[in-house]
């Protein structure tokens, strides 16, 4: 059986002259093709001189006994030996030699060797890799051969480049490997103690009770927290001192050495000289300024005495103060002392920590479990408002103009609310004017029937009063009060404050308003006013249907009586009554708890909608009136055009074609009027019989009676308005729906 090729196997010099007696063949050694001789018995089965049999493959550990190359079989398998070296020191007086320990690593894959010296603290020698990894030749006279695994054992000496290494032990893997390849292991030896390290250890042991060594290990903290800085946004309020103010600062806490640096945030145009740092980087004491210390008072160690040995040198050691008597204790700020809302002492200045960045929040959340990082506002509180006292009104001009003369040296006109003016000014069909019909309350019988229109302008809170002209009344009529702001009665005239004026909330149906000494009773309002007040019910509570219904719900005890009264007023069971009957019934049962405006709100909410579609006769009469004024008579031509376009001779055309023909012939009718008439003549398919349509419009062939003025019946609201009939809010009120919403009554 042939042994596999092991790197480093070479021929023995003693039997080289008789190598022709060995069988040879071509093989590979370290990836190089070369002639290899085999150690096997020669002719006759006898061993040649100087030849010995090597173990078979089965005796080798894992990786041996296969035909794969050795660098693959022994990959990542290393033998480790413990060795030492005696290094002579002729120039030293305390010791003559040094014992240096080494690790010899033998790589099985390529027979390379590496020698490492473990680092020893305070050895004073260059340590680390002593011999780099490579193949090492044997000492002379075998320098043409290299070290193999068979040259290593425990308790032997190996020579590397003239230096003798004494192997005294090996690790478990190495011992097992050597045993499996047939190497008989020597008993492990013992490494002698280094004289220098022994003397040093004795010196340290002797000095330990007299000189306690204090280790300040800051390297770990530096390596862990280097370039990690906590940032806080701070505030120094110095407004209490003369010419002081609030100053914004940024505090940097360096975690690597617990130092603090503070920078000031300079606002633009502050008037201060810009400085790079408010406080340079250093440890910040908690109780500063501490005062002035004597030289040597602030130290890390206190030396009590020096002592000499037997060598006669000036000093062999130092005796420190073990109990640290007289040491000045100084407390410095740590990261555990810095939180949002904490006030720290920066050399006598009280600095408030208001906020921090995201990294700082994450650090405190991870290390201290803090979750609340509510920031504190750095803005200065508004200064106390100084109440200005103005002299009272003197009677010249308006109160606003007199007040402007007291505010500035140069009087300026009173500035009105421009934003309100732009929002509430009249535009388009929106007037933003509340109009109420009122009568004058007076003891003079002649003036009792005078009616007025009070207009309230929402854009500037002004009021105008107009009296309608009535013939043979004895009064001129017209503008009664021009548009001005009206003061509320009962106010002191000569006072420092501005007077109160009548607001829109003070006007509602049924209210009594004093306008410059004239007392008016508001009887009704126009449609726009009532709708505006209902849309803004939060400003006008009398127009809020919810509040009115809440008042009615308080009359729960009168629900059956109220239902019986409404049933008696509605003998035909139509579930509705006219407005006057509804007002009388509700006024009788509520006994003055509801105002007149609240009655109108109820009636408008539960009113029965009227049919707003005009009669076709009225529409045709209006159309004839317009056609007669413009002398339009092209009806025959219109019919002829329609006949021409009626290809199927059905005598009907679509509504859009009829409208187009009317526009093309310039029919003098408005779009709304024409649309209403067309909708009355069209059928379900939106087609119109053009002969009937234009024949009806022919005012000469089919004349219509002239329109008569509508005579409104004088309905009673509060009193009868002479010359001005007052239209009621609604004609009929659905009382059953009201009773159902308020009292929950159901139909029987």
From TrEMBL:
Annotated PROSITE patterns: DM10
Keywords assigned by UniProt? Cell projection, Cilium, Cytoplasm, Cytoskeleton, Flagellum, Repeat
Q: Where is the DM10 domain?
A: 75-182, 226-368, 430-537
Main localization of the protein described in the UniProt heading: cytoplasm
- What are the subcellular locations of this protein? Cytoplasm, Cytoskeleton, Flagellum axoneme
Which Gene3D superfamilies does the record associate with it? 2.30.29.170
Q: What is known about what this protein does?
A: Microtubule inner protein (MIP) part of the dynein-decorated doublet microtubules (DMTs) in cilia axoneme, which is required for motile cilia beating.
UniProt name for this protein: EF-hand domain-containing family member C2
Question: From which organism does this entry originate?
Answer: Felis catus
- Record gene name: EFHC2
């Amino acid at each position: 059986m042939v042994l596999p090729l092991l790197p480093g196997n070479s021929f023995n010099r003693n039997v080289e002259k008789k190598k022709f007696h060995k069988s040879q063949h071509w093989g590979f050694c370290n990836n190089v093709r070369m002639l290899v001789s085999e150690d096997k018995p020669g002719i006759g089965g006898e061993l040649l001189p100087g030849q010995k049999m090597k173990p078979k493959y089965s005796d080798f550990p894992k990786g041996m006994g296969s035909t794969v190359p050795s660098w693959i079989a022994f990959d990542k398998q290393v033998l480790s030996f413990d060795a030492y070296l005696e290094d002579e020191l002729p120039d030293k007086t305390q010791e003559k030699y040094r014992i240096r320990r080494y690790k010899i690593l033998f790589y099985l894959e390529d027979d390379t060797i590496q020698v490492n010296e473990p680092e020893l603290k305070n050895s004073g020698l260059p340590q680390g890799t002593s011999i780099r990894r490579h193949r090492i030749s044997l000492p002379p006279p075998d320098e043409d051969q290299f070290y193999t695994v068979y040259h290593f054992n425990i308790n032997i000496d190996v020579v590397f480049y003239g230096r003798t290494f004494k192997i005294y032990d090996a690790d478990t893997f190495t011992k097992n490997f050597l045993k499996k390849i047939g190497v008989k292991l020597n008993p492990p030896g013992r490494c002698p103690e280094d004289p220098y390290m022994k003397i040093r250890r004795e010196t340290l042991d002797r000095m330990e009770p007299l000189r306690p060594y204090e280790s300040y290990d800051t390297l770990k903290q530096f390596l862990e927290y280097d370039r990690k800085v906590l940032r806080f946004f701070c505030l120094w309020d110095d407004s209490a001192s003369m010419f002081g103010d609030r100053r914004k600062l940024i505090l940097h806490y360096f975690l690597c050495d617990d130092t603090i640096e503070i920078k000031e945030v300079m606002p633009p145009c502050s008037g201060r000289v810009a400085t790079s740092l408010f406080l340079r980087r250093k440890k910040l004491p908690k109780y500063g300024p501490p005062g002035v210390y004597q030289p040597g008072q602030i130290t890390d160690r206190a030396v009590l005495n020096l002592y000499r040995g037997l060598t006669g040198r000036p000093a062999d050691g130092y005796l420190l103060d073990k109990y640290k008597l007289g040491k000045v204790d100084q407390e410095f700020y740590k990261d555990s002392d810095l939180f949002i809302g904490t006030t720290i002492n920066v050399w006598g200045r009280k600095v408030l920590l208001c906020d921090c960045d995201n990294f700082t929040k994450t650090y405190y959340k991870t290390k201290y479990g803090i979750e609340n990082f509510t920031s504190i506002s750095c803005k200065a509180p508004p200064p106390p408002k100084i109440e200005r006292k103005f002299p009272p009104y003197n009677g010249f001009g308006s109160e606003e103009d007199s007040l402007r003369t007291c505010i500035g040296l140069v009087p300026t006109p009173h500035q009105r609310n421009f934003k309100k003016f732009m929002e509430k000014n009249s535009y388009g069909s929106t007037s933003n004017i509340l109009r109420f019909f009122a009568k004058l309350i007076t003891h003079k019988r002649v003036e009792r029937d005078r009616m007025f229109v009070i207009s309230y302008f929402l854009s500037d809170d002004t009021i105008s009063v107009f009296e309608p002209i009535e013939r043979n009344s004895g009064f001129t009529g017209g503008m009664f009060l021009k548009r001005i702001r009206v003061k509320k009665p009962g106010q002191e005239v000569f006072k420092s404050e501005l007077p109160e004026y009548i607001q829109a909330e003070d006007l509602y149906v049924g209210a009594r308003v004093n306008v410059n000494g004239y007392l008016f009773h508001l009887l009704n309002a126009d449609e726009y006013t009532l709708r505006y007040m209902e849309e803004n019910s939060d400003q006008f509570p009398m127009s809020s249907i919810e509040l009115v219904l809440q008042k009615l719900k308080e009359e729960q005890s009168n629900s059956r009586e109220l239902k019986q009264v409404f049933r008696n007023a509605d003998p035909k069971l139509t579930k509705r009554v006219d407005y006057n009957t509804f007002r009388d019934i509700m006024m009788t049962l509520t006994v003055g708890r509801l105002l007149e405006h609240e009655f109108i709100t109820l009636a408008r909410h539960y009113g029965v909608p009227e049919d707003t579609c005009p009669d076709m006769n009225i529409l045709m009469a209006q159309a004839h009136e317009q056609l007669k004024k413009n002398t339009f008579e092209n009806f025959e031509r219109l019919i002829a055009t329609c006949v021409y376009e009626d290809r199927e001779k059905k005598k009907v055309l679509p509504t859009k074609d009829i409208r187009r023909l009317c526009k093309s012939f310039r029919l003098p009718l408005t779009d709304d009027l024409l649309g209403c008439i067309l909708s009355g003549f069209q059928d379900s398919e939106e087609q119109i019989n053009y002969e009937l349509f234009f024949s009806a419009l022919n005012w000469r062939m089919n004349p219509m009676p002239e329109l008569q003025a509508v005579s409104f019946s004088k309905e009673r609201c509060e009193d009868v308005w002479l010359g001005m009939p007052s239209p009621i809010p609604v004609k009929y009120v659905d009382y059953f729906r009201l009773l159902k919403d308020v009292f929950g009554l159901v139909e029987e």
